[in-house]
Amino acid sequence: MFHLLHRYGDAVREIDDSVGKILTLLQDLKITKDTFVFFTSDNGAALISAPKQGGSNGPFLCGKQTTFEGGMREPAIVWWPGHIATGQVSHQLGSIMDLFTTSLSLAGLEPPSDRVIDGLDLLPSMLQGQLVDRPIFYYRGNTLMAVTLGQYKAHFWTWTNSWEEFKQGIDFCPGQNVSGVTTHTQEEHTKLPLVFHLGRDPGEKYPLSFASTEYLDVLRRITPVVQQHQEALVPGQPQLNVCNQAVMNWTPPGCEKLGKCLTPPESVPKKCFWPH
C-alpha cells in the first residue's frame, strides 16, 4: 500500500515520538519527580506555508508573523509527576518569558534585582491553581501593536502584511478577511483601540462598539496599564536583528565536513526595511 506522507503530519509524528522517548528515558532513570517538563510553541501555525503544510489555528485569526491570536496564542503542556496532577486545565495567560522566572523559582533562586524581569513565576498557577490577571504586550518591531488584559484584547495598530507581499501570493491570513482589521496597510487605532472580548469572540471578528459601556470600562482599565508599561520601558539592544542578512543566512549543519557552507555577507545590522 502506498502512503503519501504529509510533511506537517510527519513533523508532528516525529516530535511526538521524540518527546515520548525523552519522557520514557526519564521514567527509566526514575527521575520524573525531579524533572519539570514544559512543552509549548513560540508562535501559532505559519499559515503562509503551502496549503495544509503549516498547520491550523482553528478559530483564531491569521497566523505566525501577526499579532492576532492565530499568530500569538499557543497551548502549553506541563508534566511533573508527583507534583502536578494529570488532567488539570489552567486558564492562566502565560508567556515564554515566564520560563526564565519559573525556572529560577524551581531552583530556589531569586530573579536578578539589577534589571527589570518581565517574566512571571507560573508555579503558583500550576501547583495551587492561582490565576494572575496580568497584561501581555504584543510588538512588531518596536511598535506596540496590542495588549491583552484578562479576557480583553486591545489593538492599537492592525496590519497583516504589505500589499506588495500580498500581491506576490504571500498571505499571513489565507481565507480570513475582517473588514478594518486584517489590513495590508498599517492602520492606527491608538486614540480608539479596537477591543475584542476573547472569551466571546476568540476569532477577533467583532470589535466592541466604541459607544458601549463595556468598551469605555475596558479602555479605563487598559489605558493606565499601557501608560505604566511605556513609561517604565527600557529599550534593549537586539541580540538577533532579523534584518541582518548575515544572521539570517542559515548554514546547514555539518556543511563544514561537506565543504558546502554558504558564504554569508558582511554583518551590518540595520533596521528592517518594512514599516514597523
Automatic annotation (TrEMBL):
Its cofactor is Ca(2+). The keyword ATP-binding does not apply. Keywords: Hydrolase. It comes from the Eukaryota. GO terms for molecular function: arylsulfatase activity. Residues 4-108 form the Sulfatase N-terminal domain. Belongs to the sulfatase family. This is Galactosamine (N-acetyl)-6-sulfatase. It comes from Rousettus aegyptiacus (Egyptian fruit bat).
